[in-house]
Amino acid sequence: MSYPYQVKSLEEYKAAYAKSEADPGAFWAEIASHFSWRKKWDTALEWNFTEPKVEWFKGGRLNITENCIDRHLEKNGNTPALIWESNDPDEAHRSLTYRQLYEKVCQFSHVLRNNGVKKGDRVCIYMGMIPELAIAVLACARVGAIHSVVFGGFSAQSIADRIQDAQATVVVTCDGAFRGAKDIPLKGMIDDALVTCPSVKRVIVCTRTRTPVSMIKGRDTWWEDEIRKVETQGLTDFPAEEMDSEDPLFILYTSGSTGKPKGVVHTHGGFMIFTAYTFVNMFQYKPGEIHFCTADIGWITGHSYIVYGPLGAGATSLMFEGVPTWPDAGRFWQIVDKYKVNILYTAPTAIRSLMGYGTQYLEGYQLDSLRVLGTVGEPINEEAWHWYHKNVGKEKCPVVDTWWQTETGGTMISNLAGITPAVPSFATLPMPGIHPVLIDEKGEEVKGNGVSGNLCIKYPWPAILRTTYGDHERCRTNYFATYSNLYFTGDGALRDENGMYRITGRVDDVLNVSGHRIGTAEVENAINMHTGVVESAVVGFPHDIKGQGIYAFVIYSGGHSNDEQLTRQDILQTVSRVIGPIAKPDKIQFVKGLPKTRSGKIMRRILRKIAEGETAQLGDTTTLLDPGVVEEIVVGKV
Ligand code: WT7
């Protein structure tokens, strides 16, 4: 069995692509016709990239959860929708069929309603990777609320910024979260955040770690108590709120080149179509297969390919609470064998880290259920690609290298498993409906093959971001103003002789650390909050496992102690407090001055070269205000 919108051969890929190029609206409308709508749309696509304004399936009425859950009940009610594997290998797994997921989501939708959540309200979700996280996300969508999931590794300050920006009224969290050997105090973090968040009226706390937590009368309530109330009230089914195709589904904050994260907004109709379509096609999913995406739902990958995409296709999605290296570096392989996983989708950084532990951790595992392997989040180096293909896929499984972004909602450039060719370190060909163009320094399109440039996209696709929450102008300047009539990705790419795309990395001041996006300006702001810091400049440098590491050059005025090591630790603590542990610099170098132009601009190009260890070719330093500082920095490199 296959899906009506599944591309099954290279010829079909070419045909779909040609069709999408001729008329993007008609192409996606045909795909959308295979989903359930309460009312069909009036127009498939209306758009301009100048405002920008993009509207898909305008006038169409639906609720994404009816497509992800209700639609499957009749035929596949007993198919597992979600399988959950605990952080602790000895704890029993949990499995929810589509029927059971329906019941849980309806119940929690009632809980949200009972707690005053209405259509359009913003709900912040800060939880560990337990089934209740997926349930909370889906329940928000079902009642028409806009979810904003915040990754459990962000600090109280970062949560507060996100809650304030979205003016969230309800927070859903856990007492704590297990991650490897760690126990993360989520509720404590929320309590700290809420000191500055008067918009929040209610906090719903799900029990996981049994860490002692404070519960404030009138504001905080237990998830389990709320469910009990709903049961006593005899509330079961929850009719999904009817949404417009263009109503916002969620906000997800992501870093840019300024200090403040942006709230990327996605909508019901477009996100539903694009995630299900790309899920089925890139992995060539077959009904009944087990799909294991190792991401956290706190990132876009989890939204698109743990929750909405797989469920939209009626698939079985495996959710894992833990980390790849705990209790040992064989954890993924043990899970693959335990559930007979067919599709494994993970990040290059995880592959490189496991590669570092050695192949002995793969011994004893069969891994023969695997059919497709996928990677996402950052460029994959050839060595890691081959290691994955050989040791995990036993040279039988196609590896799909999927390039996309929080803003694109789903995969844009990727090979289709076993259908279009795979090339190590290349994302290869665009998905049908995606029209990439490369732009040179002069702002002109570079045509033909064997060329490189800044990667842009020509037409809208259904899951393109619609706005940045509360600040549409920021969306315009960030993505649509660099080149007229194009969406600018912020990535550089090359197109080889065969028309295959290879993503070469960010061309803006954004770092990709272990597949997580971090803005250099954000890290600098955090470092500068430390009392003794006068100024700082942050750049990336190549890191064997993380892909990119964070290198900070810091001008320090001195403090009560002359202990450099302790000061470094203090700065790391400051960054942890302000952003979260994921943004901690790997290297801190104290400097007397930073290389600046006469107009006061920091010359990052030079700092980047130094951090990369390329001190011999620093290029032209004559325009610097004080060329002497460069020498000093080179000498003091850490
Ligand atoms: C940035 C987007 C896509 C979900 C996870 C990250 C980089 C992503 C690839 C890939 C090379 C990649 C890009 C992109 N990136 N996938 N397959 N090959 N680079 O989402 O946090 O929005 O980051 O990740 O630089 O712009 P994100």
Could you provide a short overview of the structure?
With 638 residues, this protein is an alpha/beta fold. It has 18 helices and 31 strands. The strands form 8 sheets. An 8-stranded mixed sheet has the order 12-11-8-6-7-14-15-24, with helices on both faces. A 7-stranded mixed sheet has the order 5-4-17-16-18-19-20, sandwiched between helices.
What would you note in describing this structure?
The chain is α/β, with parallel strands linked by helices and 638 residues long. The chain has three domains: 10-63 and 246-506, ANL, N-terminal domain (Rossmann fold, 3-Layer(aba) Sandwich); 98-241, Rossmann fold (3-Layer(aba) Sandwich); 510-635, ANL, C-terminal domain (GMP Synthetase, Chain A, domain 3). It is 32% helix and 24% strand. The strands form eight sheets. The protein has an eight-stranded mixed beta sheet, with helices on both faces. Helix 1 (10-22) packs across helix 2 (24-32). The chain is globular, with a radius of gyration of 24 Å. The model has no long low-confidence stretch (mean pLDDT 96). The structure holds 5'-O-[(S)-butoxy(hydroxy)phosphoryl]adenosine. Residues 254, 300-301, 376-379, 401-406, 427, 489-491, 503, 506, 512, 515, 517 line the site of 5'-O-[(S)-butoxy(hydroxy)phosphoryl]adenosine.
